[in-house]
Amino acid sequence: MLATTRDGAVSLLTLQRPERRNALNLDLCRAIDAAARAEVEAGARVLVLTGEGTSFCSGADLGGVYGAEFLDALYGMLHGLTRLPVPVVAAVNGPAIGAGTQLALASDLRVADVSARFGVPTARNGMAVDAWTMRTLQTVAGGGVARRLMLAAETVDRDEALHCGLADRAGTLDDALAWAAEIATLAPLTLAHNKLVLNGGSDADVDRTFAACWASEDVREAAVARTEKRAPVFRGV
């Protein structure tokens, strides 16, 4: 259902329900949440999410059971990804529809291959997504695109996603992993602080992470590296 592999400081989480186009059910939502937290606790500095086969994630499993338990697991997982102290990169290797677009939005960066497309067709099935989804979509892709997806149930292909900011880079899973490896060399405390601010963290938490950056050994390591004319090696302490 979910495969986790590690290469250095980068952990890859692969949704493995290709027969259901990697649709999210209760168990998969819980598995993503648990694996993401476990990988960060084990030292991963960047997470990459992708789907097995030709789909990133086709949405919520329409054959599943809906209700409070599923919604709690879905939104707990999505919001949990936004609260992780490390960047999350979505390698969108095909359609990301409904909850698939939500999963991409919960990621910090999105790399889209040629077959990627995005949509939130709740108006076609009478369902709804939370305000966070629509506001994040509006922030990332712009009000016009958000309204087309939410009010006209349209989809956005890879090229338009790149143009409007819904996708950050064009590329394959290998490209996403290579980008993640580059990001993993950056200062972890700074990345955690920047992500917290960008995702609307509280003033108290932002003050704490700001102070932690300036008090860290990484600040001193960067200064020493400059004098020694080498790349800094950040430890996140």
TrEMBL record:
One GO BP: fatty acid beta-oxidation
Organism of derivation: Nocardioides zeae
Class of this enzyme: lyase
Family: Belongs to the enoyl-CoA hydratase/isomerase family.
PANTHER family: (7AS)-7A-METHYL-1,5-DIOXO-2,3,5,6,7,7A-HEXAHYDRO-1H-INDENE-CARBOXYL-COA HYDROLASE, ENOYL-COA HYDRATASE-RELATED
NCBIfam families to which the protein is assigned, alphabetical: PRK07854.1 (NF005891)
One annotated GO molecular function: enoyl-CoA hydratase activity
Protein name: Enoyl-CoA hydratase
InterPro entries given in the database record: ClpP/crotonase-like_dom_sf, Enoyl-CoA_hyd/isom_CS, Enoyl-CoA_hydra/iso
EC code: 4.2.1.17
Taxonomy of the source species: Bacteria, Bacillati, Actinomycetota, Actinomycetes, Propionibacteriales
Keywords for this protein: Lipid metabolism, Lyase
Pfam families per the UniProt record, alphabetical: ECH_1 (PF00378)
